[in-house]
Amino acid sequence: MSSTALQMQSARRERMRGYKDFIAKYAIGIGGMAVIGAVLLMMFFFFYQVAPLFSSATMEKVATYDRPGQSKTVMLAVDEYQDTALRITEDAKIVFFKAKTGELVETISLPVAEGVAVSSYHVLDDADGQVALGLSNGQLLLAEYGFAVSYVDGVRQIKPRFSYPLGEAPMVMDAQGRALAHVSGRASGDTMVLVGSPKGAPVVEFRAFELKKAMFSDEVSLEQVAANQVPLAFVPEWVKVDGMNDWFYAIDSTGDMQVFSIRNVDAPKDYARLNTLPVDGKEKRQLTSVNFLLGGISLLLGEESGKLTQWFPVRDANNQFTFQAVRDFDEQSAAITDMAVEQRRKGFVLSDASGHVGVYHATAHRVVGLEQVAQSAITNIAMTPRADGFLAEDQQGKMHLWSLENEHPEVSFEVLWQKVWYEGYAKPDYIWQSSSSASDFEPKFSLAPLAFGTLKAAFYAMLFAVPIAIMAAMFAGFFMAPKMRQAVKPTIELLEALPTVILGFLAGLWLAPYLEKHMPSFFLLVLLMPLMVFIFGYLWSRFPEAIRNRVPDGWQAALLIPVLLLSVLIAVWLDDPVEHLLFAGDMPMWLTNVAGIDYDQRNALVVGIAMGLAVIPIIFSIAEDAIYNVPRHQVNGSLALGATPWQTMVGVVLPTASPGLFSATMIGLGRAVGETMIVLMATGNTAVMDIDIFNGLRTLSANIAVEMPESEVGSTHYRVLFLAALVLFMFTFFFNTIAETVRQRMLKRYGAL
Amino acid sequence: MLRTWMREGNHWVWFNAMAVAISLLAVIGLISFIVFKGMGHFWPKDIHAYTVQDGQGGTVQLIGELHRRSDRVEGNIKEGVTHVPQLLVKVGNRDIFGADFKWVDEHAVIKDITAKDLIMVERYEWGNLYGRLKSVTLGDGMTVTGNQAWDTFQQLIERHTELHKQIVRIQKHEIGAINAGVEQLRLDRRRLELDNKLTEQAIAKLDEKRRQLDGEYQTLLTQMRQLEQTASALGKAQIEIMTGDVVTLPIDKIVESVMPNAMTLTEKFGHYFHRIWVFLSDDPREANTEGGIFPAIFGTVTMVFIMTVLVMPFGVVAAVYLREYAKDGWITRAVRISVNNLAGVPSIVYGVFGLGFFVYVLGHNIDQLFYQEALPAPTFGTPGLLWAALTLALLTLPVVIVSTEEGLARVPRAMREGSLALGATKIETLWNTVLPIASPAIMTGLILAIARAAGEVAPLMLVGVVKLAPSLPVDSIAPYIHLDRKIMHLGFHINDVGFQSPNVEAAQPLVYATAFLLVLIIIALNITAITIRNRLRERFKSVDN
User: Fold this and answer.
1) CA R_g for chain B
2) What ipTM, to 2 d.p.?
3) Predicted confidence (pLDDT) per residue in B168-190, tens digit
4) Measured between CA atoms, how close is B432 to chain A, in angstroms?
């Protein structure tokens, strides 16, 4: 080969090497950046998942058109796909029309006598479309509307239907034939209750039925079991039966309310009378619209001023119910004309006389949207079954279809961190109860008890771990003989490697039952150990030199092991006598019955010990480094001036190492806050807010581990769990940052020494 | 005297020493407790025959193992409480008595004998059975009694074990492979349909394959039925249980049977190791409360292995960047802050991230792009092996980075400069000089990461670990490593069997054994890592000087 060829080859190789070096530099740079990328991605992703919880609803106009069909609207409804809607009109017609265009689909006449008008309505069941229609001749008609969905060549076809499964014949409510101004009712289980009040009369006609299923077909018939005429104190404006057939309410526009207990259908009992609109000095208040929230427990009372108040029955200690105003919403400024409630959540929409529509959530106490929908007063409003739109009719006969994007109205700051008054509870409280089998369940998303449980578990763990870990670090880093230190440090650090699932398992299945049986021995041990060590230490100083000199300085810890074992033995031996002497033979029973402290087998004490053990090695390791690294010349100076080793420790070593000890504690705390398996297995996972050491708890982390696998992706529950994880992330971020900052300062200071 | 002693603060020194002693005792106590409890499980325990007063003047017989002692509380808090010592006897025969255990007051026991002829029979279902072997009926109707009965019994069980192995092989591996083939055909068909390529020809081809598989399936099924018939025709054993009733037990329901009271120490040891082997190599039975934990070991190892492959390049590159390339500045600081924070983030938060991002975002999109034929059943859009490994890789990244960085820091400057002075480029220096020297540190980091990952449970509960996986993540069906499968895991197994199983008392020894195995693995890994690190430190001490 010629020399030029060689040169060329060599030059090419040089170039290749250069390229490689160049590529490597950037590839490694990118690799380094990827770590920042990962952290940022995590942070971003958490915020991205949580953000929708706090965003408002978006309301958008879809269509406006003239009202299809004749006469005044009594009731409005829309199908699930916002394809077809219906109007039940005063002149006893059902008008089906396309929800997006207003194009007439079908008009059906109700099976009533000529000239009879529809005077009132009540939806008995949203899912089945069961309605009760009050007629102008004092009769009541039960009917069912529905929208049958079918697919033809993959295109959705909606066919409206209207039927009378309980018979076409209307039943007589008012014998005198007066128009029914109000009807209401509810079917729960196999009983149905119907009420109606004739126009202008202070009475309510009350009927109770049993639903009889036919033997061989789906046919259902009604058998009347009770009929009463209930006198009222006033002429009612609204009559409403609640969701459990426990109560019915009669209300007039001045806010007077009369509540009847109908548990016994034969004799409705006048249970309570109250005024829901206390005069507060200003102008007279007046009710303009009343409806139940989903579930039929809470009543929503809308006023002329645009204000809305939520009421529900509250049971007191004597099992008596009082009717309480729970929360109010004062967002709209014109009279509330109509309201529609969501069928799957505790949300509702309000329409007012100025053409505005507001979207609300009751539990969250939140207004998620408010828009001007019409130019004149809205008379009727209906919500789609999926709560993703509403149809409103205004005074001028225009229909407005709006779409609504409102994924997570259930969450607000108040729900997460403050006391909330839930339906069925005696008072506002912090409660976490994310799901239930019932469809009208009110989810309770308070993170407060979980955060409390997290801090409680961490607190007891630190109470146990910090003294032991720091004191052990003081001994190992300062007093201990180097040879022993070499063996002791890795041994204690081995504890850090022990999987927490094993600690949790031992705590839950061994320690918890053991402590329940031998509670006094633990407390005896806490007392005995220092006492025995004190006595032994003093006696040791009195021992003859010959014996003492056999054990070199700095090996005290090894000497103490038999002493500690002995105190364990004594504590176990004394357990039974002490329990009999002081606690009537059984401490947990004594605590519950005599001291009045609830005792859970898996309690904070068990968690404290188990998690304490998990945290000790972390704190110990960092604290020991801090103490060990205190400059030797400072220590020697102090000793040379005549200070005893302990005085040197307190006067010189501790002050210098204190930032390290602090940072060790913070890192330990961060670890205790985030620990999952121990708390999951060693506590009962009950979300109670109680600082008591013998009570259980539920932490953020355990809660995530339990509920995350079952939560539906993208649901409010799912996002709240992400929020819980974010809170956890923030907690640990906070503690770690403090620890790191302090540690950096300390390093600088050591550098100066 | 005492006062001076205290003024010098000597008692405080002793208290500090006490803290060390407590910590040491806690570590040693914990580990010995797990070892003791975990290893004790396999020892063939004596079977007792207790004669117990039944409280109505008569006596009853209890046959079983002494499980543990405890006491029960009598009386109420006002008049004083007494503790009555009790024995918990594992009497087995869950199918007859309803529960495995019976509590007996210790003072009610009037006779306690460990007769040599008492046997324990481990069954495939319903747990153990304790009693006395009366006779064995062979498949041809011949009945063996007396001394020969036990030997015949053992031979029959052995023969059945052989048959059982073959049946399981056919059932799990061969029929499993055919089922996978059928499923694959369905997916192929759907794929073609989605691509609009489902021609007559293609259908015929798929049907042909399907027929072929069906044929194979039938052959295997006949084979299996034959084996099962042989197994069920092996014979029956008549065993007298503690109530005096004689139970007839078909041989094909029996895993094994021992006569522990008659065993010599050597035999006991032999059996002890046999049971440890079964524990390590067998599949779990009876909702994980019996049998072995092989799938959990296998799942843990596979997951950790994949995690190592994922975390190593990233960790090493990031450490090299920090130590060798990055200039001190805000970027380096940001990376360091990131690493520190990653290390401090609770593991469950990684789990939430893994589930939300890897499974539901990445996995979902992978399904949309590549596994459309399987939809709506998710392939990667559900927790599984890959996501578990990836989540843990993220979790252990700081461990690898910190350890590698330490290793790189210990490589003497002189070596780097020497290499550069000889004309090597930076990457050549790194690749040929620095990294080889730092490799023990990288190893240490990896081992620590593995130890951490093997013991981590909380995030895995969200991203791919299940209580019972139907099949192993690695098998003989292409593509051999199934990254989308769910796995079993030792740590989760402990949590699940210890807390969620229907029969916690019976399962507890198994949990201790699993815990012991896990502790053993993790301590071994940690000690290896520490040893390597110390050796590395020693080696470069001499170079530094």
Assistant:
1) 31
2) 0.89
3) 888 888 888 888 888 888 888 88
4) 13
